[in-house]
Amino acid sequence: MTPMATNSRGRPVRPVAVVSFAQAKNVRREQEHNEVEMLMPIVSEAFGAVGLNKNDMGFICSGSSDYLVGAPFSFVMALDAVGVWPPRRESHVEMDGAWALYEAWTVLQEGELDTAFVYSFGRSSPGQLDRILALQLDPYYVAPMWPDPVALAALQAQALLDSGRATERDIAEVSARSRRDALGNPKAQVAKDQSVDELLSEEYLVAPLRRHAVPPISDGAAAIVLAAGDRARELVEHPAWITGIDHRIETPALGARDLTLSQSTTDAARSAGLDATSVEVAELHAPFAPQELILKDALSLGSSTRINPSGGALAANPVMVAGLARIGEAASRILDGSASVALAHATSGPCLQQNLVCALAADPDAAVGKKVA
Amino acid sequence: MSDDVTTLATPIKIDYSYTAGLAQSRYLHGLSQGKFIGERCPKCRKVYVPSRGSCPTDGVPTEEEVVLGNAGTVTTFCVVNVAFAGQQIEVPYICAQVLLDGANLSFMALIQELPANQVRMGMRVEALWKSPEEWGPTMDSVKYFRPNGEPEAPYESYKEYL
User: Fold this and answer.
1) Among the three residues A235, A266, A296, which one is the final residue of a domain in this structure?
2) What is the reported pTM?
3) Quick count: other Cβ atoms within 10 Å of Cβ B105?
4) Structurally, how many domains does chain A consist of?
5) DSSP symbol at A301
6) Which residue of A has its CA nearest to B18?
7) Is A26 a member of any domain?
8) Which of chain A's residues have a Cβ under 8 Å away from the Cβ of B54?
């Protein structure tokens, strides 16, 4: 058995790796297939890549929200895409799949099981996404005004501009780079080669946000296979080891925090033992372009880190999936041997309220135990 | 204080459009033609009606269509005695799970043409369809199920479906 490393708090960490990732093509409106039919091809793709099937999985965990499709227990019906007979250990989070992955990683830490399957699905097209997302807000003072996510992100963007730490050009540069990178991602929804000046000439959608700074509305699904220790080494040549993972949440009261900072991201990164200087590739879940600038600061990422080579959430933002997809995209850079240290981030709630940081490396001991100053 | 705010009404309304998917669409179109269309799992050979496109046991696509007949067996039931708002059926009435012959999944159905206190597990029933001009992609194409006069099915034949 592999000797246990320790995390930044001196606790033992069992090496667990992402060994497979699959995602559906992100589209504005999936009208032909239901959730089960959307998931089935990527479930078999994720298993097929490592020669496993559902019966090899010790644990199954999914992330989704019934509010999106307006169907109670849609996550239970979605299990049909995996097939759970004989009965197996399974769980669900009413959150982005990145948090389902966190639960699966935690279960694997117990040491009883060697494999886990994580998936998520999100279809924003059946409902009214702006109204659905308003329902996650304070039900007494905020939600009754139905503030939509674009308006809330615009408040955050304005605060960032007022702080003097970013300009509208900086925001447009994030979008231009993301859309250009998305041209190389066959699963992306928005992929274009546009100049920053072209983007800056757009009208405001909700000032100071122009269309380019706002994510598309997407239907999508993603799946990841996790394996521990030697099992991961048997399955793939370059397992993407999770060297640290943690998440933090901030107050739901929007007026009670500095929207231009992301303390929860900084804290999660520190707890995950992230050494920012070593990160070659970072997949940041920043649905709105200015949020990437806030996250980059919160994670102390420098110019040597390549951010969102997949195009990120500006290229496709399936709610409940985009965070898990960031982990999958970052892990893919290690699985394909092109990077040795990568970082994935997922967010939830309005204006980066809750954040998860997942540190990945080709060497399971690379970043484990290191503390961020 | 008597003027404390103790309740707050915040009306919520959200509209959804529903995507049935390929398999359920095949089932719903079957209802428009007066047919129950199930789908068979290529692995375990079970027939699901309706199918959601996947075998929940094996997790593989169910693509072979199987047209089922109108006869089936009551696996379990309840008798509804209390009317609710918008109730369209006269109480008491029987709400049953019916396993169509040749299917491996029961569905919920209304049973009529017998006193509610005479329904039994294992009772053989048949679908009574509305007239063809009333058929549509909905279970409303079926008026209800009723006893078909056959002898009670043995417990062994439906015990796996309870």
Assistant:
1) A235
2) 0.93
3) 16
4) 2
5) -
6) A126
7) yes
8) 36-37, 40, 80-81, 83
Residue of A nearest to B24 (CA): A34
A97 with A40, same domain: the answer is: yes
In a domain, residue A288? The reply is yes
Specify whether A121 is located in the same domain as A140. no
- Spatial distance between the Cα atoms of A330 and A119, rounded to a whole number of angstroms: 16
Residue A187 pLDDT > 50:
yes
Q: Is residue B38 within 8 Å of B64, Cβ to Cβ?
A: no
Question: What does the block give as tokens for B144?
Answer: 């209800």
Nearest to A36 among B15, B53, B57 (CB): B53
Is the same domain home to A61 and A191?
no
Domain that holds residue A62: 12-128+217-235
Over residues A223-256, the pLDDT tens digits come to: 999 999 999 999 999 999 999 999 999 999 999 9
Asked if A37 and A98 sit in the same domain, the reply is yes
CA dist A203 and A345 (Å) reads 30
pLDDT at residue number A336: 97
One domain, residues A212 and A222? no
Provide the residue ranges of all domains of chain B, joining segments of one domain with +: 21-161
| pLDDT cut 70: percent of chain A above it | 95
Residues of B in contact with A69 (CB under 8 A): 16, 18
Beta partners for B64?
B40
- In a shared domain, residues A308 and A251: yes
Q: What is the DSSP string of A182-245?
A: HTT-TT-S------HHHHHTSPEEETTEEGGGSPPP-EEEEEEEEEEHHHHHHH-SS-EEEEEE
Check A82 against B59: CB less than 8 A apart: yes
Q: How far is CA A278 from the centre of its chain?
A: 20
